[in-house]
Amino acid sequence: MSRYRDEHLVYLMMLLRAEGRMSRRSISERIGIGEGSVRSALAHLVSEGMVETNRRGAALTKGGRGFLDGLGFTVVPMDSRGDIAMASVVVRGAADGLGDGIRHMFAAVKAGAEDVSLYRVDGGMVPVQAYAPDPEAAGIDLGAMGCTSDGDAVVVCGSGTAAEANLAAVAAGIGIRMTQQRCA
Asked: Which of 86, 81, 108, 103 is nearest to 169 (CA)?
């Protein structure tokens, strides 16, 4: 049985988009699962036409890029807060998928988040569920998130490692997008 979940697959694809061709070892180190699980995840993505592999590593296909474009996720780098690694994901046009945010917070915690905040963009960052209702207190720089616009959802997660924080933010983002699509 493989030890990867949907957020691993999406984050793996996002890494390939950002970094280009990567080795299994490099992927394993970045997403925090073993090389055997990476091999299984890559085999699944190859069978779906999202990734191609060869001796030099794995790379995203045109189909994989199209899938990510359809998700409408943007990963925004964040500085750590002390010993907490931070990650954020902007889900374009998905604020109506936030609801009260509880389900998405639980998804992030299940994926490894220690801190989770969800915001709706509406003339600024409006907290839906937040450990720090003030975005600036949470270390969120709206200027760095120049990619946000009204109607977006923003997930901010903190965890012990960058991989856990990124995976948690992606897990919540997947849930928000799926809820938003069901509501449409």
From this structure: 108
